[in-house]
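Late entry, written up from scratch paper. The run itself happened at the end of the previous shift, but nothing got recorded in the book at the time, so transcribing now.
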Amino acid sequence: MAVWLASPVRDWITETEPDFMQMDFSPFGGALDKHFAVQVARQFMWLCGYGEGFDFKGGQSWPMTADAGCQSTEGLPAQLARMAGK
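Output as recorded:
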């Protein structure tokens, strides 16, 4: 049985200046689902081709603080910061 695995390729329309600190990475959009945000953000990074760059820093860092009105970019991966021009 042959298994074909392809590297992730970003093939969707991108925003010119995405704000990754305002994106909600909770799969169901609720505050109780924030603990799933880490897995969703990890998959998002992989889809962007930056899977190796994901390093969750802890509860008070990205992606837990995303969409929470937090001004700190603590834990925001450098690849996403460059994409957003931060």
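The radius of gyration is 14 Å.
(Scratch paper discarded after transcription.)
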